[in-house]
């Protein structure tokens, strides 16, 4: 995967700073006030071991960045009547010690399609946006892909726990239900960010085989709790 970089802003009680978020679809990286943070989810951004922050410079909970606001824009591919187009996704994330609040806004052809103001995770926010889009417009990111799923459990994290099965496409096309995904889990390629997209994207089926554990997209919201990991 090739890295993507997204320009944005970081704000906390100490002020506001321009930042650049970088991701390869799995690992997120950001430098704030000379300190590097990285992690697989936006709510698990940890200082890298060789660059611990100065005391009091950042609020940390269990070692991860918290009590701050991240705001950034990223290019987001969509399909309009089956043809690829580029939209822009505005992201506003309030990282709080208890529950993060997320708001997404998709800008396309002068129109804006928004999630609720306080979504609990990227899957729910992108689902809300897909439901507001006119017929014939589909998101073209990992959350909408035919080869992605969550581990069969009670919930999911804020971001980055979506499993990719692009290395087992034919097998995943036959999945429907929790048991089928569990049987295939060890063949997953890895985890990906919900807003990521790759050249192997295929539109998720609306029902039946190939909808795995999480079902079609847009799917019904799940409670946003940490997913159980397989043994």
UniProtKB/TrEMBL annotation:
Domain of life: Bacteria
Ranges where the record places region Disordered: 203-231
Name recorded for this polypeptide: DUF6304 family protein
Species of origin: Streptomyces stephensoniae
